[in-house]
């Protein structure tokens, strides 16, 4: 049992389980009934995505300093009670079932899902190593 960190819209891995979309907005131009069928997500979990203003800041980050600033701010958002409790739940569930979570970004290293990976790891989650 474990969590797989994925790029939404990519083919699912064997045994991946339920896919959680940790994105601010649903995929454009895709009917809601086809989100899972097209390998985006089964369940939408926008409270684990950056706030709209922070998302814009992260997308605009062009160097290590601006990315580090985004990362600190996102970590702060994830310390809020609602997000923190969800992260705790996902970490605990990772020892009972397999599931994945992800975002649309091509490069995980420049995506909030890399921060989610760290936060879940700090909580003792079982995470698939890619």
Task: From the structure above, extract its key features.
single chain, 130 residues, alpha/beta, four-stranded parallel sheet, globular
Mind sketching the topology for me?
Layout: E1 3-7, E2 18-21, E3 43-44, H1 52-60, H2 64-78, H3 81-93, E4 99-103, H4 112-122
Parallel strand pairs: 1-4, 2-3, 2-4
Description of the molecule:
- The chain is an alpha/beta fold and 130 residues long.
- It has one domain (3-122).
- It is 37% helix and 12% strand.
- It has helices at residues 52-60, 64-78, 81-93, 112-122, and strands at 3-7, 18-21, 43-44, 99-103.
- The chain has a 4-stranded parallel beta sheet with strand order 1-4-2-3, covered by helices on one side.
- It is globular and about 35 Å long.
- The two termini are 15 Å apart.
- 25% of the residues are buried.
- The mean pLDDT is 95.
């Amino acid at each position: 049992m474990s969590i797989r960190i994925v790029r939404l819209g990519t083919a699912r891995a064997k045994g991946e389980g339920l896919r959680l979309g940790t994105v601010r907005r649903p995929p454009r131009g895709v009917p809601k009934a086809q989100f899972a069928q097209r390998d985006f997500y089964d369940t939408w979990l926008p409270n684990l995505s950056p706030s709209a203003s922070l998302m814009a800041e992260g997308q605009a980050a062009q160097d290590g300093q601006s990315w580090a600033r985004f990362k600190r701010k996102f970590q702060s958002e994830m310390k809020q009670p609602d997000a923190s409790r969800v992260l705790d739940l996902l970490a605990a569930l990772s020892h009972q079932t397999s599931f994945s979570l992800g975002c649309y970004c091509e490069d995980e290293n420049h995506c909030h899902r890399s921060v989610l990976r760290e936060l879940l790891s700090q909580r003792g989650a079982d995470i698939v190593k890619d």
